[in-house]
Amino acid sequence: MKKYLWGLFLTLLMICFTSCSHPYQNLSKDSSAPKQLSTKEKIDDFNYMYNILKENYPYFEVNKRQNKVDWLNKKNDYISMIKTTKNDKEFLNTLHNILKELNNGHTDIMPEKFYSPFASLYTERTDLNKAWLDELNKPKSLERYSANNDNINKKTNPNIYKKPTANNFRTEILEKDKVAYLYIKSFNYYNIDSDGKMIYKFLQKIKDYKVLIIDIRNNGGGSDNYWQENIVSPLLNKTVVYNTYLAFRGGKFSENFIENRFNKKYDSLDNISKIKEENLSNTPPELENKFKYYKKDVYIIHPQYPIGFKGKIYLITNKKVFSASEAFSVFAQSTGFATLIGEPTGGDGIGFDPAICSLPNSGYIFRFPLDLGMISDGTCNFEHKTIPDIKCNPKMHVNIRRDEPIKYILNSVH
């Protein structure tokens, strides 16, 4: 599952784009910014990024299949693009466009506005985040992002980002004593406690209803703890167990990140050749020759203060369901917790925080996933998303009774 700090990253993302329509525009403008890079330095930085991705990034073959983009084979094209850049700002924008061709929502360049608050958040758990902090604290990145250890630890106040999302959920009774509706805008980590108390009261109120509709359309994720604690645990009547898989390319750069998260180096992971013993029916074709290691994760979720709900649960999804909200979709379908209705999700909900990497000359930091996440039958979640059990137009209206998923569910009750 995409973990805690990815949820915080989403919070920063929303704040950044709310306050600034061009998140890269302020880089390299102030008088303390590093001197402009030479063409050779830019190309060397690109080559460094290219090689890191070549050895560690998991979705090159997926990009070929889905988007007809052979990213690794376009190296010379990308170098030609970089040669035309006249300054650092153009170089940054070109790197952004190059990474965009990977077509992965967890792969991008870190905007300047994210640096100090993000570093401060990572320092809260140095035991889990050393690999990330090592990259953030590279001298060139400290210089580039106009930061140093003092202002990471003293001047930046990460508490300004630790705010719940306002009006994060809403409830409605669509048919008295029959159909209840719960919409959740995000799984923001900082909404868990405040939302949880109110959601629990609502669930108690409708515990004898025939149908509960949970709507996560446009929910871009946050924290898995949100949906596990606030939605699943109260609605469960028995413990559920399900599993997912992570596959790793085996590049040297990845190992420290994997060790931080799992307390395991490569030699403690299973060799990819052993994945045959799992009898998975739908693994991606490149798994055995492009990857070296894998890890099986078994999740156990227990009922917690169960309300005794015995009705049917529907989960409405659309293509903007991503990361932690996608993890909820995977769980709901894998365990039979809910019937999914709407359109396929955005995927990429299985795995842990994306790695970050500091470029040696510019100090620009880019981000990318290290793991290829698979559901219990080996299906690549990023590639195939989660396909709803009932497909219909997920368009949202002001009056939700006009929504196709809602109309379908209400008709099925009668």
TrEMBL record:
Keywords: Signal. GO terms for biological process: proteolysis; signal transduction. The keyword Signal applies. Residues 1-23 form the signal peptide. Transmembrane segments: none annotated. The keyword Transferase does not apply. One of its GO terms (molecular function) is endopeptidase activity. GO terms for cellular component: outer membrane-bounded periplasmic space. It holds the Pfam family Peptidase_S41. Residues 178-391 form the Tail specific protease domain. It comes from the Bacteria. This is Tail specific protease domain-containing protein.
